[in-house]
Amino acid sequence: MCTPVVDDLWNKPAYILSLLLDEMLKPPEERTEWLFWVDRDTIILDQCRPISSFLPPRILNQVAASTKAHEAAPKDEDVHLIAADDWNGLNNGVFLLRVGQWAIELFSAIMAFRHFRPGTELRFTEQSAMEILIKEKRFKKGVRMVPQTWFNSYPGSLKASTYLEGNDEKGLSDWQTRRGDFLIHFAGFGEDDRARSMNSWLDMLGKTHFTPEAGRVQRNATPDIEAYWEDLEPIEIQ
């Protein structure tokens, strides 16, 4: 990412596309199954949580083998992108992407978007292009929009010291970071404010060894994640 492939923020989908193509050139047994993308303005808060905990449950080999050809494919096999919205719509600063043809087609379409639809307003450049595309019939079935609190919480006005020492959640919005969250994303900060805030949080987290103190977790996403995938129904495409 340090060397631009294309101009401006479009370098991000270009780089992701290059990663996907590199993986698909490998034999299937050697490929990465999922990519976890995070923008550089993020910090992992809970280093004990595996990223795989956000994925749909793995289909057991014996169950998959017993599925008859005429039956529907396991529901999690349709999931290719796991992302979250904020108040502006899609935020693609953090998301999980299954490596495969679907992902290559999506990111190829993102890269081509501004050239083949030049009259479309893209308020957030490549992020807006991605949001438009994943709502279209071609890609909609493969997308799952999950709660922002899973892996894309924002600090807002929350200070590192309050995160560490505070016990009162009064006044905090649901999207604001709490002890127990996996990640904090400094989206929307200016360069100087972002650097100061991230350094403050990193200093604080270094003292705690990036592990929430036992008994002081304010939010645990695990029950919500498990319930979400348990209740998942296939998306019907109109």
From TrEMBL:
One Gene Ontology term of the molecular function aspect: glycosyltransferase activity
GO cellular component, one term: Golgi membrane
UniProt family annotation: Belongs to the glycosyltransferase 34 family.
Alphabetical list of Pfam families matching this protein: Glyco_transf_34
Keywords of this entry: Glycosyltransferase, Transferase
SUPFAM superfamilies: Nucleotide-diphospho-sugar transferases
GO BP term (any one): protein N-linked glycosylation
Gene3D superfamilies: Spore Coat Polysaccharide Biosynthesis Protein SpsA, Chain A (3.90.550.10)
Signal peptide: none
Name this protein carries in UniProt: Galactosyl transferase GMA12/MNN10 family protein
Keyword NAD on entry: no
